[in-house]
């Protein structure tokens, strides 16, 4: 072991304590309370009633199919965005992240228009719509995680292979792909977990025939069947842990190191390359933003044509519990900033430790676990557990903490592959020249990791803007964020309210694009 | 400081880093502590735990504070089911003083949570709403069939549950899944009351055979499927008796005509209750205030349900565009609680065999 880097071990304490208190402790508490609240039913009985075989099988196979599809479709898009520079590149890439933050109920409304019963492609209530929706939601994950890695690959490696006679495909397969593999695996792990624990998509678009374990858990809680819910949550947790352990040990065996690239991206050269690059980007944008256009159009629709009436109406709330867009944006941004700060701090520290091989598989698995744990279970876990040692259950901080739990894996998964690929001799050279471990961290690891941290931070912000995870199940003071404001309008039975909800959704899309753009801009300015 | 210097002494060149980390942890803990609202026994502050459909006019709660000196913080705990689950899970150390928003379909499981209190204002309420001293009825809403008026120019709108099986109304209805939606469950209960424990299954088999669409939740049913809410396909929807006036009130252009109407037969009544989780004089005052005329008259236009007080004046839209069903279907909370899971499972078998 490298004695200079031993001190990094201390870093593991902060993420571990954070996860222990805000994840493991609530989770164990809720499972304990629920499982012991039973009425004498056996596990077998509960699992039989829940048709666990069918539900578990559907969860696994649709998640696998969603992951394969998302990665296959995402890689060309990641390539186009990360290997070439062209006007509007950052803006378009930021726009690609918009679907990721939209509340399912909003996306479902758009999909109903395109794939509803009365449309020309009636896919609603089939498994196809579930897969399409998962690709739609998660493409941004692949583009950002894989793209973040791809950007840092030294072209000279590929050029060398080409000089030695390898054709494009061989060069990709033997040089680029192995270098990208950790990032692809990371993106796959995230997409798999998201799809495996898919809730809104399956519930709203899949119809009553399809159910993931996550949906089944939620249904049991809806029936106040705590024991049933917890039993199913345990099954899901076991499945996720197995997948994550396999992933973590696989990833450990396949580390690659390289010299990271410096310098500017080239513009696509020649009509052939331009056609391919812009063709891929064009298709991706149509697929990702096309469905949203129906919502944006709807937000401008008024009783006599098109205009800003819905937006104008938002600035004049007619109830104390509705908020102006400015207030909702303010709330969303405040929560987002707190969540990103937590996620980048904790995820960043964890990444440094993981990349330096100073942890075992369990730590890696623990970090990813919140992403694959039933959100409703964590939410109720907060209620059961977090009144000790101080009562945090009704704290405003609980919302960004819940967001951070889901966001940390994104930060870790974008940062570790990049950090791990930094050649050790860079660090050793620095150490030889008298740099302390802290200096090595600051001068070598951090600048290189900043890019990846920002990519992860962008996704973390998106997670928070989209209100993922446990937040809908914890009691919170009345601080309406953008998604909450959208729900409030949707809860009112009037066509005009739907227009206002769509106007608020359009604002959420805009805010997302601006925030992601700002984070990406920081990346460019910083390096 | 003593701890940090001990940590620092383990290796001299690590001291700076560890000290920094240690400070960061302390700062993080302090920030968390400062932001947390610590539990308080002071009777001058109350926490009202409710669902996220809760809404009042500006100033309604301020009036209570001005009158009593008691400040009220509103905490939202998700939808009705999530709210009750949270309250059950935090029974030993409640997160609020008063809970508002548990309805009769979930009441039995929640009753144990509450401290009995009978407000002097109970006498002003519709007596059919009062059930148990542990809870106080605040409002009610009827889950009813709604229809788009313009779709029934040539044929008459349905008049009750029986009509929905007629070929004339084939492919017209959208209902919500009772396993995932509160109005969906209410509608299932309505059919069980109407057709009995042995008859509702056949009713549903026939209803589904007549082209009924099942939506996962009310939002999807109303906005995506119901033609009266801007959707396509279904001119009849399971919604609330208060939905038609809402359509008028929130219409883009001022209008005096509702586009939708309520079928007043076959409605299921949902009653919402408040209960005291942590007993105090202040908590009792808050319950009294929720039964005051000011609060009760503020309910309809904010939450689109009807006030429990019989002498609370209704907004004109509620009088003009809908009516309170005179004989709504009901079921006592114990029966609902004892059978709900089984009914939902049986329904699921019928709908998705």
What do these coordinates show?
The complex is a heterodimer of chains A (527) and B (353). Chain A has helices spanning 13-35, 43-49, 52-83, 89-96, 98-101, 104-115, 127-151, 155-163, 168-196, 200-205, 213-222, 226-253, 270-300, 309-314, 325-355, 361-372, 375-385, 398-420, 424-432, 437-465, 482-490, 495-526; strands at residues 301-302, 305-306, 476-477. In chain A, 73% of the residues lie in helices and 1% in strands. The model of chain A has no long low-confidence stretch (mean pLDDT 87). Chain A has a single domain, classed as Orthogonal Bundle (MetI-like fold). Chain A is mostly helical and 527 residues long. Chain A has a two-stranded antiparallel ribbon. In chain A, strand 1 and strand 2 form a beta hairpin. By secondary structure, chain B is α/β, with parallel strands linked by helices. Chain B has three domains: 2-35; 45-140 and 271-307, D-Maltodextrin-Binding Protein, domain 2 (3-Layer(aba) Sandwich); 142-270 and 327-351, D-Maltodextrin-Binding Protein, domain 2. Helix content of chain B is 39%, strand content 18%. Chain B has helices at residues 2-9, 15-35, 60-68, 80-89, 107-110, 182-195, 200-209, 218-225, 243-249, 281-290, 293-303, 316-321, 333-351, and strands spanning 45-50, 71-76, 98-103, 136-148, 173-176, 213-215, 236-240, 260-276, 306-307. In chain B, strands 1, 2, 3, 4, 5, 6, 7, 8 and 9 form a nine-stranded mixed β-sheet that branches. In chain B, helix 1 packs antiparallel against helix 2 (15-35) and helix 7 (200-209) crosses helix 13 (333-351). Chain B is globular. The relative contact order of chain B is 0.16. Residues 1-17 and 33-42 of chain B have low confidence and may be disordered. At the A-B interface, helix 1, helix 6, helix 11, helix 17 and strand 3 of A face helix 2, strand 2, helix 4, helix 8 and helix 9 of B. Strand 3 (476-477) of chain A pairs antiparallel with strand 2 (71-76) of chain B.
Quick tags:
heterodimer, A: 527 residues, mainly alpha, MetI-like fold, two-stranded antiparallel ribbon, 73% helix, 1% strand, globular, B: 353 residues, alpha/beta, D-Maltodextrin-Binding Protein, domain 2, 3 domains, nine-stranded mixed β-sheet, 13 helices, disordered N terminus
């Amino acid at each position: 072991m490298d004695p200079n880097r031993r001190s990094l071990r201390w870093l593991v304490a902060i993420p571990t304590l954070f996860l222990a208190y805000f994840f493991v402790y609530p989770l164990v508490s809720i499972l304990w309370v629920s499982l012991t609240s039973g009425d004498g039913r056996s596990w077998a009985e509960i699992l039989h009633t829940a048709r666990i075989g069918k539900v578990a099988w559907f969860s696994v196979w649709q998640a696998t199919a969603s992951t394969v599809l998302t990665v296959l479709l995402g890689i060309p898009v990641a390539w186009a965005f990360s290997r070439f520079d062209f006007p509007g590149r950052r803006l378009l890439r930021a726009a690609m992240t918009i679907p990721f933050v939209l509340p399912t109920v909003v996306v479902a409304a758009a999909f109903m228009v395109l794939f509803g019963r009365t449309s020309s492609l009636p896919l609603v209530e089939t498994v196809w719509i579930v897969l399409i929706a998962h690709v739609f939601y998660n493409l941004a994950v692949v583009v950002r995680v894989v793209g973040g890695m791809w950007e840092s690959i030294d072209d000279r490696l590929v050029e060398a292979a080409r000089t030695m006679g390898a054709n494009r495909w061989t060069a990709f397969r033997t040089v680029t792909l192995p270098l990208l593999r950790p990032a692809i695996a990371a993106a796959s792990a995230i997409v798999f977990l998201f799809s495996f624990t898919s809730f809104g998509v399956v519930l709203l678009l899949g119809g009553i025939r399809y159910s993931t374990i996550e949906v089944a858990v939620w249904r049991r809680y809806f029936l106040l069947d705590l024991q049933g819910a917890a039993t199913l949550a345990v099954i899901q947790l076991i499945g996720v842990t197995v997948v994550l352990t396999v992933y973590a040990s696989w990833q450990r065996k396949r580390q690659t190191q390289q010299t990271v690239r410096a310098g500017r991206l080239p513009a696509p050269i020649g009509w052939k390359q331009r056609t391919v690059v812009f063709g891929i980007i064009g298709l991706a944008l149509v697929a990702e933003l096309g469905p949203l256009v129906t919502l944006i159009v709807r937000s401008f629709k008024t009783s006599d044509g098109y205009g800003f009436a819905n937006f104008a109406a938002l600035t004049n709330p007619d109830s104390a519990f509705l908020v102006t867009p400015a207030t909702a944006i303010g709330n969303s941004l405040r929560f987002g900033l707190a969540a990103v700060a937590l996620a980048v701090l904790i995820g960043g520290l964890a990444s440094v430790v993981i990349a330096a091989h100073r942890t075992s598989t369990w730590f890696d698995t623990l970090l990813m676990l919140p992403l694959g744990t039933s959100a409703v279970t964590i939410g109720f876990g907060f209620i059961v557990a977090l009144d000790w040692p101080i009562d945090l259950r009704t704290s405003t901080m609980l919302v960004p903490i819940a967001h951070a739990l889901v966001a940390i894996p994104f930060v870790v998964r974008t940062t570790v592959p990049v950090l791990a690929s930094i050649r050790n001799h860079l660090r050793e050279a620095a150490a030889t020249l008298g740099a302390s471990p802290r200096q090595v961290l600051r001068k070598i690891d951090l600048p290189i990791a900043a890019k990846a941290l920002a990519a992860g931070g962008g996704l973390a912000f998106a997670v928070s803007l989209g209100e993922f995870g446990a937040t809908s199940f914890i009691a919170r003071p009345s601080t309406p964020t953008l998604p909450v404001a959208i729900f409030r309008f949707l809860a009112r039975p009037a066509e005009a309210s739907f227009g206002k909800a769509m106007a608020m959704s359009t604002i959420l899309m805009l805010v997302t694009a601006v925030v992601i753009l700002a984070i990406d801009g920081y990346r460019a300015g910083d390096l | 400081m003593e701890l940090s210097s001990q940590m620092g002494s383990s290796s001299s060149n690590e001291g700076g880093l560890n000290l920094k980390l240690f400070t960061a942890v302390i700062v993080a803990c302090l920030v968390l502590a400062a932001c947390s609202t610590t539990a308080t026994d002071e009777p001058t502050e109350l926490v009202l735990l409710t669902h996220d459909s809760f809404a009042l006019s500006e100033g309604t709660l301020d009036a209570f504070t001005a009158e009593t000196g008691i400040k009220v913080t509103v905490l939202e705990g998700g939808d009705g089911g999530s709210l009750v689950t949270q309250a059950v899970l935090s029974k030993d150390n409640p997160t609020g003083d008063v809970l508002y928003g548990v309805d009769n379909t979930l009441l039995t499981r929640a009753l144990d949570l509450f401290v009995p209190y009978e407000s002097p204002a109970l006498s002003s309420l519709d007596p059919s709403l009062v059930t148990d001293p542990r809870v106080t009825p605040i409002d009610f809403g009827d889950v009813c069939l709604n229809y788009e008026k313009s779709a029934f120019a040539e044929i008459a709108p349905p008049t009750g549950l029986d009509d929905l099986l007629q070929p004339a109304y084939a492919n017209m209805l959208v209902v919500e899944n009772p396993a995932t939606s509160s109005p969906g469950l209410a509608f299932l209960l309505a059919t069980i009351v109407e057709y009995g424990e042995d008859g509702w299954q056949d009713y549903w088999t026939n209803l589904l055979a007549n082209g009924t669409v099942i939506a996962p939740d009310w939002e999807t049913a109303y906005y995506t499927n119901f033609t009266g809410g801007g959707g396509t396909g279904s001119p009849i929807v399971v919604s609330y008796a208060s939905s038609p006036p809402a359509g008028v009130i929130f219409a883009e252009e001022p209008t005096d005509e509702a586009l939708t109407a309520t079928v007043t037969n076959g409605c299921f009544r949902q009653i919402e209750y408040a209960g005291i989780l942590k007993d105090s004089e202040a908590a009792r005052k808050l319950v009294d205030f929720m039964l005051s005329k000011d609060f009760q008259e503020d309910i309809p236009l904010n939450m689109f349900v009807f006030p429990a007080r019989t002498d609370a004046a209704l907004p004109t839209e509620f009088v003009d565009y809908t009516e309170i069903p005179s004989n709504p279907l009901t079921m006592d909370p114990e029966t609902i609680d004892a059978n709900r899971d089984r009914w939902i499972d049986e329904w699921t078998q019928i709908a998705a065999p």
